[in-house]
Amino acid sequence: GTTDGLYSFTDQNEVEGPHVRDTRILSMMIDRDDNLWVATGNRGAWRLADGTWSNYGPEQGFDRQVRFIDLDLEGRPWFGGDRGVWSFPASAGARFDASNGLMSDNIFLMRFAPDGQLWVGHNAGLDLIKDNEIIAHFDNRDGLADNELNVAEIRLSLGQALPYRRDLRLR
Fold first, then answer.
1. Distance in angstroms (rounded) separating the CA atoms of residues 23 and 39
2. In terms of Cα–Cα distance, which of 27, 30, 54 is closest to 41?
3. What distance in Å separates the CA atoms of residue 112 and residue 135, rounded to the nearest whole number?
4. Do 26 and 45 touch, CB atoms closer than 8 A?
5. Cα–Cα nearest to 61, from 98, 95, 110
6. Are 47 and 54 within 8 A, CB to CB?
7. Out of 23-27, 66-70, 136-140, 161-165, which region has the weakest mean confidence (pLDDT)?
8. From the CB of residue 146, how many other CB atoms can be counted at a distance below 10 Å?
9. Closest CA to 20 of 85, 152, 3
């Protein structure tokens, strides 16, 4: 993924593409069915399934800017953008935004924990969602260094997310 679209390499190391054009690629995820999901800066999300690209934009309930993609415990993709977080297909989950409890719509990070809780970071702190309900809000009054959480993610080897520990210190 680049600032101008999505490209790939052939077996002969030749560049192909762009497959998704004229947009910044913000994140990518492979779902349990081996479909590639691509989040973009202004063209919604794209899915490569069985060799065919499909675009998901406002007409399908997606934001124009999709920043993050993650899978819930059932393998459904969830998306975070500039108007909250939502699942796909919409009938299988929920949409969370400032109108129904998120502290902000402007999502800067989103990650499912191994227990299925969804952590959502934005420009007003951090929200925790469990069983399709917002159960906690955190901000600088709770010990966060700042209310704006804009780190993409922290990953360990083998694709595992860094577990939360109170005593953990990053240098």
1. 10
2. 27
3. 14
4. no
5. 95
6. yes
7. 161-165
8. 10
9. 3
Distance CA 167, CA 109 (A): 22
Distance CA 149, CA 137 (A): 13
Confidence of residue 151 (pLDDT cuts 50, 70, 90): low
Rounded to two decimals, the pTM is 0.80
- Residue 68: phi and psi, rounded to 5, are -135, 150
What residues have CB less than 8 Å from 168, skipping those under 6 apart?
162
Structure tokens at 150: 């804009």
Count of CB atoms situated within 10 Å of the CB of 121: 26
Q: Convert the pLDDT of each residue in 62-90 to its tens digit.
A: 889 999 999 999 999 999 999 999 998 86
